[in-house]
Amino acid sequence: MTALRSFAACLALAAAAALPAAWGNWEYSRAVNLSPAAEARLASVAVPHGVQGGTGGGLAAVRVVDEQGREVPYVRFARTGQRTREWRSARLLEPSFRQGEYTEALVDTGAARQIHNSLELETDERDFFAWVELSVSDDARTWRILRDRAPIYRFTRDALPGNQVLTYPDTLSRYLRVRVLEGAQPFSLREARVAREVAEEAERVPVPLPLAADSSAPQQQNWWRAGTGSAPFEVSEVRFETPQPEFHRAVRVSQSEDGQTWETAGTGEIYRIGAGDKKRESLAVELPGSSARYWRVEVLNRNDAPLAGLAPALFVTPWRVVFRQEPGRSYRLLYGNTRARAPEYELRRLTDRKALDAAALGSLGAEELNSAYADPRPWSERHPQVLWLALGLAVVVLGTLALRALRHPA
Questions:
Q1: pLDDT by position in tens, the chain (length 410)
Q2: In the Cβ-directed half-sphere of 125, how many Cα atoms lie within 13 Å?
Q3: What's 38's DSSP letter?
Q4: Angle CA(91)–CA(95)–CA(97) in degrees, nearest 5?
Q5: Which of 148, 238, 279, 286 has the fewest CB atoms in 10 Å of its CB?
Q6: Cα–Cα distance measured from residue 390 to residue 398, given in angstroms and rounded to the nearest whole number
Q7: Distance linking the first and last C-alpha atoms of the chain
Q8: Looking at the DSSP assignment, which residues form a beta bridge with residue 250?
Q9: Are 154 and 126 in contact (CB under 8 A)?
C-alpha cells in the first residue's frame, strides 16, 4: 500500500508544473498543441468537458497564456448548429379516403414557385402513429415520389407532442400529394404549411459519463440514467445504436437536480426503415443544451418488444477558445480558479463568424497541476470544518452558562 502511495505521489509531481506568479490562483493547465504557423493566424482548441461543466470556476476561469506567461485574448465560440424555417401558408384541398389503403390530400403551395423542403400537417388526431407517402407535381397530374415512408406521430397520453413535420429534398414544384398510409378509417387533416429549412450541422463530442440501465422504468419503457450529483453537466444530443433492422420509437429525455424530481428536457424519435439503397434512419435526438446534475433517457416501446441491443450515448457541443497564434510561440490553457471572472477582449468584436469557423484546429495535452497554486478563496471557505467546530463549542459554552444561571439565580 505504501509503495502504491509513493508511486501516485511521483505521478502527481511529474504532472505538476509551476506557472508564473501572476497565475498562481489557477490550479490547472494544459499545453496547446498546434502545427507551426508561418504567419499569424487564428487557432482553436476545445475546452475540456470538466471545465465546460462548471467546476473550478467553469468557463469564466479559462485563460490562454504564451510561453512567457503573457495573457492572450481569445473568443469563446461553439458550433451549436441551427435550423431555420420560414413558414408560409399553403392551401389544403379536401382530403379523400380509400378504404383499406390511405387518406389522401393535395397541398397547393402557391403560384409563386418558391423553394420548399418541409411540410407541416395539422390534425385533430390525439394519439396516433402513421407512415406518410409524399409526392410532388408541377401540374397535379404527373407525380414523383419524394418520401415513400415518413413517420408522423403524437402520443398525448404520454405527454409527447411528437412530430408532424415532413422533410424532403428541395423542390420548386407547386403541388404536394400526401397519403397517410392508414386504411382502417379516415385520418383527420385540417391545415398545412410549407417552408424551406436551412440546416447547419453542430459539432458534437461524447460526454465522458456512461448511461446505466434504470430498473425503475415502468412497463413498456426502457430508461437509462447518467450523473454523479457532484456537478451539473450539459447535454446537447442523445445518439442511439441498435442492430434491429426496422423500428420506430418515441424518445423523451429528462433532467433533474436531485435525482428524484424530473422535468422534460426534450423529445424526439428514432427510426430505421427500408433496406439497401432505400434504407433511411434517424438515430439521434437533439436537445436545447441545458445543464443538470442527472439525466435520464426514456424510450417508449408501447406494445412492442424492447429494441435489440439498444445503446444510447450522450453528446455535447464543445466550447472552443479561438486566439491569434503567432509564429514561433507556444501556448497553454489555464483553468481552475473559483474566484475568476469572465474576461472581456476586443477580439470578440473584431472577428466574424467565418473567421472563427476557419481557425486552425489544435488539441490539448494532459492536465497538469500548478505546483505554485495558491487557493484564492478566503480562509473561512477553505476551512469550513473549523468554523463548524467553533460554532459547536460556542453552543456548548452558552448552554453551560445557561444551566449555571438556572441553578444559581442572582
A1: 444 444 444 444 445 667 888 999 999 999 999 999 999 999 999 999 888 877 778 899 999 999 999 999 999 999 988 889 999 999 999 899 999 999 999 999 999 889 999 999 999 999 999 999 999 999 999 999 999 999 999 999 888 999 999 999 999 999 999 999 999 999 999 999 999 999 888 999 999 899 999 999 999 999 999 998 888 899 999 999 999 999 999 999 999 999 999 999 999 999 999 877 788 999 999 998 788 999 999 999 999 999 999 999 999 999 999 999 999 999 999 999 999 999 999 999 999 999 999 999 999 999 999 998 988 766 555 546 655 566 677 777 777 777 777 777 65
A2: 22
A3: S
A4: 165
A5: 279
A6: 12
A7: 62
A8: 269, 300
A9: yes
Torsion angles phi and psi, residue 156, rounded to 5 = -65, -40
Tell me if 314 sits within 8 A of 238, measured CB to CB.
yes
Biggest CA-to-CA distance, the chain: 109
Query: Could you tell me if 294 and 256 are in contact, meaning their C-beta atoms sit under 8 angstroms apart?
Result: yes
- Residue whose C-alpha cell reads 397520453 in the numeric block: 157
- Count how many Cα atoms sit within 13 Å of the Cα of residue 169 in the half-sphere of its side chain: 7
Alpha carbon distance 152, 16 (integer Å)? 56
Residues 6 or more apart whose CB falls under 8 angstroms from that of 401 comprise none
Q: Which CATH class is domain 82-200?
A: mainly beta
Residues forming beta bridges with residue 33, ordered by sequence position: 363
Provide the β-strand partners of residue 284: 239
Return the domain boundaries, the chain: 13-78+323-370, 82-200, 206-316, 378-410
Decide if 226 contacts 209 (C-beta within 8 A): yes
Q: Among 262, 251, 248, 340, which residue's Cα sits nearest to residue 294?
A: 262
Q: Is 324 helix (H, G, I), strand (E, B) or coil?
A: strand
406: cell is 438556572
Q: How far is Cα 107 from Cα 178, in angstroms, rounded to an integer?
A: 8
Task: Please state which CATH class domain 206-316 belongs to.
Answer: mainly beta
Question: Are 332 and 25 contacting, i.e. CB atoms less than 8 angstroms apart?
Answer: no
Instruction: Evaluate the CA torsion angle 86, 89, 91, 97 in order and state its sign.
Output: positive
- What phi and psi, each to the nearest 5 degrees, are found at residue 376? -80, -5
